[in-house]
Amino acid sequence: MKFKLSILVLSAVFSGCASTTEKISYHDCVFPDAPTKSAPTWICDQPAEGLYMQAVGYSAKLASGPGMMKDIAAAEARNQLSATFSSDVASKLTRATSEKIAGTQSVSTDTIVRIQKNVSAMEIVNSKIFRTQISPLGNMYVLLGIDAKTYQQNIDKLLDQSVDAENPELYRKFLLQEAEASLNKAAEAL
Question: For the whole model, what pTM was predicted?
Fold first, then answer.
């Protein structure tokens, strides 16, 4: 009897926690450098419409002016975006190669390490500044990102690089599958 009661209570608790129609709120978004002032939601990492990947860069107020501040903030955002892209692709590649090692086809550890080094050294191409915002204290925030088409261009750039002489087809197959899956997810989100 206690067992049935425990199951009933636990299922009620989990069902109450599991389903919620409440969306994440960005109403309380404030500037990190001016926490009493409301900020645009993208500064708080709310996904911007039309962007597949995004990053926010920051520059303190400079005597050299907004042009230099924009360059500094954009450079910071590009570094973040490139790191996110590289990390995402590298982790997917590790999973794919691990599955191949566990399966019938084997891939050497040296090959995996070489591929990961090349992916982590990659810089994203064709990223764009989508928004800029000056904070109440005069500092600048920049929203930089890439859309699904640009993400695909970056995957294609990886495909064009000869990073795995031992197993080029395995690597190409992985990247093509990832690109297709990513574009399908982007299409579903629209």
Answer: 0.64
